[in-house]
Structure formats: structure tokens, C-alpha cells
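Example 3.2
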Amino acid sequence: MTEIKLVDSHCHLDFPELAENLPRILAAMAENGVGWALCAGVTLERFPALLQLAETHDNLFAAVGVHPDHQGGKEPEADDLVKLADHPRVVAIGETGLDYYRLEGDFEWQRMRFRRHIRAARRCGKPLIIHTRSAADDTLAVLREEGGDQAGGVFHCFTESIEVARQALDLGFHISFSGIVTFKNAEALRDVARFVPAERLLVETDSPYLAPVPHRGKTNEPAYVRHVAETLAAVRSMSYPDLIETTTRNFFALFSHAHA
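Structure, written as C-alpha cells:
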């Protein structure tokens, strides 16, 4: 019987602290039973390097998008995103969404950027990777207004309430948990992890950030997604192999352009 492997559904292997150590990182993935990883876009300027990773390595996939709090780079138009997404290694639009945490002032520019991503996802038939921080109500409202349910996707690195999870699920989205779910003070998030239906569950690292226990405070990497999966299996009273099989099946069902 072929061993079922994990998928890290969200990471940033093009970031310098990971890209400089890529051979070791890929070897560590294999050693820890992590078969694939999805590298999310954060700027259009970085996208060529990200795409090259996915073109070079069969077990890496790419997404194209501009992070909601990124300023100073090329502003994405829907046409740009659709064109860049027309590549067999690009399986999603994102990451995109709203982030009011670090910034001040009028956020209409963020909302317009988010709308363009949703429109692009609907046009190209690839799902959205949603980032939301201190902006859940507006994130959900924009998704509803723009027909985001027609694109589908995932709320990545989920840290919101059960009620926000319920609304995201009602729109047809998946929920992905990162290393935060392993933190000692994250019991409320573990309650959300119990609430999410098995068929909508994903795991991720968001590396190089948010390393899970027992690596908290260190540079995160895709191999560590197994600690997220182990915690979720325990929280949900599932066996670890069942958790792997479930989340991997969910990943390839959602990101249907990704091929194992």
C-alpha cells in the first residue's frame, strides 16, 4: 500500500531564509512524510522566482497574488492575475484578502485589490487563498459582494472565531490551520479545529513564520507541518494516518489543477 503523505497547503519557499537552504528543506520534507507544498504569492515582483520553484520541482505548486498589506510594488489588475494564472503549475489566486492589523487610514485600496483577485479567480476557475487579519467582517462582506463562493478557496492560517469559520464554510471555503494551533494559549483555536468539518480541513506552515511547537521561535519550514497535523489529529480524536489522508484528499480536491 502506498504511503499517504501530507501537503503543506501554504508556505513561502521563495523567501530568502528558505530559498537559500532549499535542498535541505526538500530533503526534510521527504523525511517527515510531507509530499507536496503550495507556495503562495505575495508580490508580482517575486512571482517569477516562485514560479520557477514550481517548474523545477514536481512536488511544489504556485499561487499568484499580492498580499493585502503589501505597498509600493506593482498593483495587480484582474487581467494580469488571469494571465499569470494561465500556467499548469499555478493552482490558485493568492494570497489575497484584507489585513487592517499593521496599517492605518482608509483601507479602500485593500478592498479594491481584494475585489480584483476575486474577479480573477472567478474568470480563471482557480480557487482563492484568503488572508484576513483584524478584518473578518469586511473580508466576508467583500467575498459575498463579489461572488467569491463561485471561486471557492481556503481561509489560510485561520485564527478567527467559530462564527467566522461558520460563515466562511457557508460560502464554501476550506479552513487551514497553521502552527498557531499547537501553541499553549490557543485553546479557542483548537475549539474551532474541532468544529470544522473533516472535508473542509487543511494544514499548513505559513513558513518561514509561525513555527509550531516544539520548534516555536525558530525559522519554520514545510517539514514541520507534521506537528500541526499531529495536534489536529489529537484535538479531533482522529488517528494521525486518517488526518493525513483527509487533509491531503481535501487539498487535491480543492486545488484541482494540482496533480500528485
